[in-house]
């Protein structure tokens, strides 16, 4: 057993995990705790940043105890996180001024439509590689500065948030920056998370003055942007803090880029798909920021200290695993593990299609007013058909993105690495192979977001010295090959596209 380890904080949409890895990339310990999902109004989603930080401390302590190791045995800590979720906090007290606005939140859809009407979509895309969408941080922080101040009138000097931000009294960051700030006292983010804010120029690799002016965001409140794997470190944990040790915090990546890194997709053309709350299909495009003509995002893949930025194409699917959670919410299933058996119990969906556009549709459609839709039901429709249709929706959405990826990159997809909680479902992964008509490889360590953050931090401190060491750690758990006739897969997918059409532009009253 190793004497030293690397830890990774994985701050996700539904909960926070801390994982401890040894030099072989093997999991030595893991602890997880959920946090509350807050829905103040339809289409709004919030988290309590203080609850997230308290949970972070709890899972770190729990995992270390589980492994029977001291914090001093951690060579480094890496951070990975739900991206785009936006937090504004008081620079003096460290307390949030409002709940975090989650990436799924649609409250700023009207503002995005203003940008569309003002023909600013291409302008934003050229600078950031992103679509103009409420998904990203820019309109969220704009809302927090203008609307998100419920205690304003309770202060003796009721300045608004915008004035306080301009005076340097407020900080802003995504959950990685929030965690790093609480660990080290420094407001720092990495290039991948910065690239998801819609405020960062991914070609000039700096906060963009014109975008900051457009959204009314003072630059002084923004975090410092560093490489994803930083030999200068982001800081150290406090020796007098909850860990009783000074541990370097030296790596951070947004969760999907972390999974790309953890799946060792270090070379141009390497691709992975992560199945979590949503699904995120990324392809490494090397040092070239490939522009998408098919609704994909051009984003920063990762950066190591002293090395060029590696870019990626990304297809962002908002709802996949969350659709399975919805089945549980409406009591069609008692537990996600039931879905495979229920889906197998019928030969097909009997023509039922489920489009899980609960928070709009991401790539390649980008319709913030699309809504969840079930079509094709008859009196003979049973819960088994709806469950199967929900699993199929995950596979169809991934095919939509895969086809766009091939069209944009010109690289034919021959195999795909997958990870995330949903890939434990063998039925789903086989179905995905059938619908997308390609081979799929599932790794032995499927929590690759945490692994990628650990790798980034470990490389920065010399725990691992080369990328080849990490490639050697990657091991296949199981491979899946298509079993469905290609013509049948095409017909099923064509009918899916008809169902998607029914879901578009539904929420016109919002």
Describe this structure in words.
The structure is a single chain. The protein is α+β, with helices and mostly antiparallel strands and 510 residues long. It has a domain of 251 residues: ATPase, nucleotide binding domain (Nucleotidyltransferase, domain 5), CATH 3.30.420. Helix content is 34%, strand content 21%. Strands 17-18-16-15-21-22-23 form a seven-stranded mixed sheet. A six-stranded mixed sheet has the order 3-2-1-5-14-13, with helices on both faces. The mean pLDDT is 92. It is an enzyme of class 2 (transferase).
What's the short story on this structure?
Helices cover 34% and strands 21% of the residues.
How is this fold's topology laid out?
Elements: E1 5-11, E2 15-21, E3 27-34, E4 46-47, H1 49-67, E5 74-81, E6 87-90, E7 100-101, H2 109-117, H3 121-128, H4 137-146, H5 161-166, E8 170-173, H6 175-184, E9 188-190, H7 191-194, E10 200-201, E11 206-207, H8 209-215, E12 224-226, E13 235-236, E14 248-254, H9 255-262, E15 271-275, E16 279-286, E17 297-302, E18 310-317, H10 321-329, H11 338-344, E19 353-355, E20 373-375, H12 383-409, E21 415-419, H13 426-436, E22 439-443, H14 448-461, H15 467-473, E23 476-480, H16 486-503
Parallel strand pairs: 1-5, 5-14, 9-12, 15-21, 21-22
Antiparallel strand pairs: 1-2, 2-3, 4-7, 6-8, 10-11, 13-14, 15-16, 16-18, 17-18, 19-20, 22-23
Helix pairs in contact: 9-14, 10-12, 11-12, 12-13
Organism: Halapricum desulfuricans
Binding site for ADP: 13, 17, 277, 321, 421, 425
EC number: 2.7.1.30
């Amino acid at each position: 057993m190793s004497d030293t380890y690397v830890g990774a904080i994985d701050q996700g949409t539904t909960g926070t995990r801390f994982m401890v890895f040894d030099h072989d990339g093997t999991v030595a310990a893991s602890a997880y705790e959920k946090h509350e999902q807050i829905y103040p109004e339809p289409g709004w989603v919030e988290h309590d940043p203080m609850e997230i930080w308290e949970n972070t401390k709890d899972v770190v302590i729990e995992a270390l105890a589980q492994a029977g190791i001291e914090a001093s045995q951690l060579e480094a800590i890496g951070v990975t996180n739900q991206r785009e979720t936006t937090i504004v906090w008081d620079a003096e007290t460290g307390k949030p001024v409002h709940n975090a606005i989650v990436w799924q939140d649609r409250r700023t859809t009207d503002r995005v439509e203003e940008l569309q009407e003002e023909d600013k979509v291409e302008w934003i895309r050229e600078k950031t590689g992103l679509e103009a969408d409420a998904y990203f941080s820019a309109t969220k922080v704009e809302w927090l500065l203008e609307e998100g101040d419920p205690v304003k009138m309770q202060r003796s000097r009721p300045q608004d948030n915008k004035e306080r931000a301009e005076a340097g009294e407020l900080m802003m960051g995504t959950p990685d920056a929030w965690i790093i700030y609480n660990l080290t006292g420094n407001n720092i983010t990495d290039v991948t998370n910065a690239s998801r804010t819609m405020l960062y120029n991914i070609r000039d690799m700096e906060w963009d003055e014109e975008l900051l002016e457009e959204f009314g965001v003072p630059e002084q409140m923004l975090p410092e942007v560093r490489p994803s794997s930083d030999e200068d470190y982001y800081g150290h944990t406090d020796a007098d803090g909850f860990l009783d040790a000074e541990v370097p915090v030296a790596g951070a990546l947004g969760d999907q880029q972390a999974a790309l890194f953890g799946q060792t997709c270090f070379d141009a053309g390497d691709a992975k798909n992560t199945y979590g709350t949503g699904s995120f299909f990324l392809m490494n495009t090397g040092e070239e920021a490939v522009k998408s003509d098919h609704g994909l995002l051009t984003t920063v893949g990762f950066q190591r200290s002293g090395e060029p930025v590696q870019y990626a194409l990304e297809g962002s699917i908002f709802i996949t695993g969350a659709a399975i959670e919805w089945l549980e919410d409406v009591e069609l299933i008692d537990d996600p593990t039931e879905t495979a058996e229920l889906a197998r119990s019928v030969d097909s969906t009997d023509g039922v299609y489920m489009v899980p556009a609960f928070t709009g549709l991401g790539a390649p459609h980008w319709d913030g007013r699309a809504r969840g839709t079930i079509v094709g039901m008859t009196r003979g429709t049973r819960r088994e058909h709806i469950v199967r249709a929900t699993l199929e929706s995950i596979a169809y959405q991934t095919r939509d993105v895969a086809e766009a990826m091939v069209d944009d990159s010109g690289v034919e997809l021959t195999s795909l690495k997958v990870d995330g909680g949903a890939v434990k479902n063998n039925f789903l992964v086989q179905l995905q192979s059938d619908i997308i008509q390609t081979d799929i490889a599932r790794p032995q360590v499927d929590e690759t977001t945490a692994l990628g953050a650990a790798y980034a931090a470990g490389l920065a401190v010399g725990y691992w010295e080369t990328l080849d060491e990490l490639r050697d750690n990657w091991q296949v758990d199981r491979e899946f090959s298509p079993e469905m006739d290609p013509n049948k897969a095409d017909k099923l997918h064509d009918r899916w596209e008809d169902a998607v059409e029914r879901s578009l532009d539904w929420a016109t009253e919002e």
